[in-house]
Specification:
Number of helices: 13
CATH architecture of the largest domain: Alpha-Beta Barrel
CATH superfamily of the largest domain: Metal-dependent hydrolases
Shape: globular
Helix content: 25-40%
CATH class of the largest domain: Alpha Beta
CATH topology of the largest domain: TIM Barrel
Radius of gyration: 21 Å
Largest sheet: 8 strands, parallel
């Protein structure tokens, strides 16, 4: 007898839609069709979409920086993710200066073990390259860590030079890894910030003025050029503006394997939000900064036409009270929460006609799963895949409010947004962990996923 059958739903994958029932044995989808025999548990999905669980490949859980600590750890953050429809995350493991990659990974494994309720993997952030680290880097794909992150910004902290980037790209090409790049010219941003401070321009709106689009697009073009020199793929994280999109398109015309994501907050906020009164603008201090309405429209278009491949949350849950609530923009930690809202807010693109429901599944689940070595187990409702399933109600409506969310941080960027389309039930590897929008699973049920090497 099967463990679970989901009946009467409309199965939505990136490649198409079909009316079918789903049979689950243990953790795996074993049948897809009609007239499936009974099971220990049956769920009626009439009127609902049956989708693969979301895959969020850009999160920052249990992150500490000097003077700051995120509100979300691996329990609260993954509970929030699950309640929003996400069943797998890939978090950033941060190498500190003087630290080996093994030490960094051990720290992150300890943070997640026994807490995560979704499945999870890790990217490694390289900040301190030397011969030993380069050797370690080459060995990580065999351990299931198949993506490396580089920062071109945050001078005197995480920022690396072009030589380090080339060395990392070389390793990635040889070992089958994907390099993710935070593309901003850190020297330019640092200089513009110094000028603003000297002039006494400390309001939150100056965050956007000191990191203009050219700071992002120059670095995007340079990252793509360095990847091209090394013959390696490159993944541009949190792309925000038309200038950076142009650099991605130009790279593809030269046959560079360049992929780009955007994040939910760039689809709904603009730089005008930085000017909100009563310190509210501090909530919107993100890096790169929010851009114009025109840039926002270009991002939606680019998700629809395939220029952008993924929507991630870039969840960085710095509390508003005590951390982000600052009068001086240079003292505000960059980033905002969004792990729970990611799929719900991105689905509004279906309601607004930017893309169809199959493309929605592609950008929030299938593409990130395929690009980051999680497919074919993740990212599709298919025989042989993990039973990571979301029952999605396309007609359900609500207003996003802090009080309705399951995260631990003290605000949401999307307060007051009316939305249509919500997850009703979430299944992770055959276990129902969310019912009627509320978490009902067990702490620590998530599993570390050894990801496969990058291939296109």
């Amino acid at each position: 007898m099967l463990d679970l059958v989901i009946r009467n739903g409309l199965v939505v994958n990136a490649g198409g839609t079909q009316r079918a029932d789903i049979g689950v044995a243990g953790e795996t989808i074993v049948q897809l069709g009609r007239d499936i025999a009974g099971a220990t548990r049956e769920i009626d999905a009439a009127g609902l979409y049956v989708m693969p669980g979301g895959v969020d490949v850009h999160t920052h859980l249990d992150l500490d920086l000097p003077g700051f600590q995120t509100a979300e750890d691996f329990r609260s953050g993954t509970v929030a993710a699950a309640c929003g429809g996400t069943t797998t995350i890939v978090d950033f493991c941060q190498q500190r200066h003087g630290q080996s990659l093994r030490e960094a990974l051990d720290i992150w494994q300890a943070k997640a073990a026994g807490k995560a309720v979704t499945d999870y993997g890790f990217h490694i952030v390289v900040t301190d390259m030397n011969a030993d680290v380069e050797k370690e880097l080459a060995g990580l794909p065999a351990q299931g860590v198949t993506s490396f992150k580089l920062f071109m910004a945050y001078k005197d902290a995480q920022m690396v030079d072009d030589r380090t980037m080339l060395r990392t790209f070389d390793v990635a090409r040889r070992e089958g890894a994907l390099v993710m790049v935070h593309a901003e010219n850190g020297d330019a941003a640092d200089y513009l910030i110094e000028k603003a401070v000297a002039a006494g321009n400390l309001s939150t709106f100056n965050h956007a003025l000191t990191r203009p689009p050219r700071v992002e697009s120059e670095a995007t073009g340079r990252a793509i050029a360095l990847a091209e020199m090394a013959g390696a793929p490159v993944y541009i994280v949190h792309l925000t503006c038309g200038d950076a999109l142009d650099a991605v398109i130009a790279g593809r015309r030269r046959n560079v394997d360049v992929i780009a994501e955007t994040c939910t907050h760039y689809l709904f906020g603009t730089q005008d939000d930085l000017a909100r009164p009563d310190f509210e603008g501090a909530k919107w201090v993100l890096t790169p900064p929010l851009r114009t309405r025109k840039d926002q429209e270009l991002l939606w278009q680019s998700l629809g036409n395939g220029t952008l491949s993924v929507v991630s949350s870039d969840d960085a849950s710095w509390p508003f009270e005590g951390q982000k609530r600052q009068a001086d923009f240079t003292r505000i930690p960059n980033g905002a929460p969004g792990i729970e809202e990611r799929m719900i807010m991105t689905y509004q693109g279906v309601n607004r006609g930017h893309f169809n429901v199959n493309r929605f599944v592609e950008i929030v689940s299938t593409n990130p799963a395929c690009l980051f070595g999680l497919a074919p187990k993740k990212g599709a409702v298919a025989v042989g895949a993990d039973a990571d399933i979301v029952l999605w109600d396309p007609e359900a409506e609500t207003v996003i409010t802090q009080s309705k969310l399951n995260h631990a941080v003290d605000f949401t960027l999307f307060e007051g947004q009316k939305v249509k389309g919500l997850p009703r039930c979430v299944v992770r590897r055959g276990e129902v962990i969310v019912e009627n929008g509320r978490f009902c699973g067990a702490t620590g049920g998530g599993r570390f996923i050894r990801r496969s090497r990058y291939r296109r």
